[in-house]
Design goal:
Layout lengths: L2 H14 L2 H7 L4 H15 L4 E3 L4 E3 L1 H29 L2 E6 L4 H11 L6 E6 L1 H9 L5 E5 L7 E4 L1 E4 L28 E3 L6 H13 L7 E3 L3 H9 L4 E4 L1 H7 L2 E3 L7 E7 L3 H8 L3 H8 L4
Parallel strand pairs: 3-4, 3-5, 8-9, 8-10
Antiparallel strand pairs: 1-2, 5-12, 6-12, 7-10, 7-11
Keywords: DNA-binding, Transcription, Transcription regulation
InterPro entries: LysR_HTH_N, WH-like_DNA-bd_sf, WH_DNA-bd_sf
Protein name: DNA-binding transcriptional regulator, LysR family
Length: 292
């Protein structure tokens, strides 16, 4: 027996003094209202209503039970309201600062269909993990090694010059020859988003192995400044293909190395992590630059 539904029928019928009118008030057929009240009476082992051909009246037992039935209905309605508010309460999610506005907006919009009202908080890699650890956000999309990550984003080198036919660029070609020692050396600029060991250290080791100067592999704190440097010079920006397209740069794969960003979700609460991971992976992948 659905106790709340039965109590709703009982309160409505007793209040209107009629099965027909009471059933209509709670939008159920008269026969359903009758069965629910009968089930309630059987459950309690006593009559709630006295039925006659002209009206319905409360029995003494029914008068005693009516206030409790009303309280139960009010409590159920309050619980439903609280549940709806909880579903719509903003769910703070730390996301990479490289996420584009439109893909992020689509993620927020489509997450509502999954009863998740996302409130994105852009932050750098270290900061995102810290926000999740200190519970300043419910969950965070964090940088992880790409091999076993749910989202993998290949990284290439982007430049302002159009290379024509797409071809790999070899980092060793950035090594200055004798005639170029006094000239400004081309650099590889690493974004703050990629200032993590599985990306930064691999690029630095590659640069060292092919003879680049330490100053030719640079971690930048500002994507705007780094992009400006690339637009004004022959420097190269380490980026995903989608990000290069967004910045109006031309991308080419790195000849000597396969390097990628990796992402996963972390949260102090297992349920919070599950809620984010239960979203369609492509929604989050689009924000991170995963090629669709």
């Amino acid at each position: 027996m659905d106790l709340i539904a039965a109590c709703k029928a009982f309160v409505a019928v007793s209040g209107h003094g009629s099965f027909t009118v009471g059933a209509a008030a709670v939008r159920i057929p008269q026969s359903v209202a009758s069965r629910r009240i009968a089930a309630l009476e059987e459950h309690f082992g006593a009559r709630l209503l006295t039925r006659s051909s002209r009206n319905v009246t409360l029995t003494p037992f029914g008068r005693e039970m009516l206030p409790s039935a009303r309280r139960l209905i009010e409590l159920a309605e309050a619980m439903e309201h609280d549940a709806e508010q909880a579903r719509l309460r903003p769910f703070r999610l730390a996301v990479p600062e490289i996420c584009g506005t439109r893909p992020l907006a689509r993620l927020v919009a489509e997450a509502l269909a999954h009863d998740l009202n996302l409130d994105p908080r852009p932050a750098g890699p270290d900061r995102r993990a810290e926000l999740a650890r200190t519970l300043e956000v419910r969950a965070a999309i964090v940088a992880v090694p790409p091999d076993d990550s749910p989202w993998r984003v290949p990284l290439d080198l982007a430049s302002q010059a159009d290379p024509g036919a797409v071809q790999s660029i070899y980092v060793e070609t950035l090594r200055a020859g004798r005639a170029e020692r006094d000239a400004r050396r081309r650099r590889v600029l690493i974004q703050a988003e990629d200032d993590v060991p599985h990306v930064r250290d691999r690029i630095r080791r590659l640069g060292h192995s092919v003879g680049l100067q330490p100053a030719q592999v640079v971690v930048t704190s500002s994507l705007v400044a780094a992009t400006a440097e690339v637009l004004a010079s022959s420097d190269l920006l380490l980026s995903s293909r989608s990000q290069a397209d967004e910045l109006g740069l031309h991308w080419r794969p790195i000849g000597e190395l396969d390097v990628a960003r990796g992402y996963d979700v972390t949260a102090r609460s297992r349920d919070d992590r599950r809620r984010v991971r239960s979203l369609p992976p492509a929604l989050i992948g689009r924000c991170l630059g995963v090629e669709q």
